[in-house]
Amino acid sequence: MSAPVSILVSRCASCHGRFLPREGPCPRCGSRSVTPVELPPFGVVLAAIELTAPAAPWTAPHRLALVELEESVRILGLVPGSLPGRGARVAVARDGAHYVISAAEAPAGSVRGEGESPAIGRSRPPFEPPR
């Protein structure tokens, strides 16, 4: 398997919000001053679920994990193997329109330690819709 590639995110120069790239202005403040930033592809699992009766066209079992990367960017991705536990270190890769989550040994110091879960709700500022 090849080395994981960094994940491209966007950072707003006005409100400092970080989000996955998309068309248009910052979803938080509406500013058009958005800069692309690359983050390491390693993160920590916040939650994971296996759906036994997913909607079409997905096949069962359909596994998903919510992962927090650096700078509090969160990604929901597909898990092709067994479900990782909360706090597990994983790698995130983009596969077309989807993100794929896999177990990976991240370089030392790149993510929180195994079993250390982030302070959910305190790691990012509260969401405020654009005015």
Mean pLDDT: 82
Q: Helix count?
A: 0
Q: What proportion of the residues is helical, as a percent range?
A: under 10%
The CATH class = Mainly Beta
Structural class: mainly beta
Radius of gyration, Cα only, in angstroms?
A: 15 Å
Number of individual domains: 1
Q: What is the CATH topology descriptor?
A: OB fold (Dihydrolipoamide Acetyltransferase, E2P)
β-strand amount: 35-45%
Low-confidence stretches: 110-122
Largest sheet, in brief, is: 5 strands, antiparallel
Instruction: State the end-to-end distance.
Output: 45 Å
What is the CATH architecture term? Beta Barrel
What is the number of strand segments?
A: 8
Protein described:
The chain has 131 residues and is mostly beta strands. It has one domain (7-103): OB fold (Dihydrolipoamide Acetyltransferase, E2P) (Beta Barrel), CATH 2.40.50. 0% of the residues lie in helices and 37% in strands. It is built from no helices and 8 strands. The strands form 2 sheets. It has a 5-stranded antiparallel beta sheet with strand order 6-5-4-7-8, with no helix packed on it. It starts with 6 loop residues before the first strand and ends in a 28-residue tail after the last strand. 18% of the residues are buried. Residues 110-122 have low confidence and may be disordered.
Brief overview:
It is built from no helices and eight strands. The protein is mostly beta strands. It has a five-stranded antiparallel sheet with strand order 6-5-4-7-8, with no helix packed on it. The protein has a three-stranded antiparallel sheet with strand order 2-1-3, with no helix packed on it.
